[in-house]
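Researcher: Go.
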Amino acid sequence: MSVALKLPFDMTVQEFLDWCPEDGLRWQLVDGEPQAMAPARVGHGVLQANVARMLGNHLVNRDSRCVVAAAPGIIPQVHASRNFRIPDIGVTCSKFDTSDTSLREPVLLIEILSPGNRRETWANVWTYTTIPSVRDIVVLHTEEERAEVLSRKQDGSWPAEPIKLTEGDLVLESIGYGGALESFYRGVSS
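Model: Structure:
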């Protein structure tokens, strides 16, 4: 769940980056309005770490130039000057500078859906579809082993609804990954 900070004006991305406080919170900019993001629950953090590790290992084993980033800044194409979103995981295959504030040309974005952040998570997902480089978007649920996957079609369009997956292999063509969905959830619940 995020909390909106009431400011007397709409911020641009640059104003947001200049302002963003060092208060230990994660902030994102949604349509010009800064929003603090609630700290992740332990299950969310374990799932995020598992996914980052598994995808990172996959990319290393393939000798891929792609890299995984945890909680990267993402600027959608639509309303780009007023939005700076923070997915849980991003993958890019483009060169970057370590001082970049946002992930260049992401190909895969992953959000982890916790009970209190459903609306904010799906709002982020729909903005990610405006980024031309993005090929796959995955929403992983924390309360059950479940993924909702959006994959860009050959013609560049997106499906009307995500594919819902509760077992079997999760396939991410953007990075040539295929693996059991359940392996992401190892250790998530006791």
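Model: The chain has one domain: 41-184.
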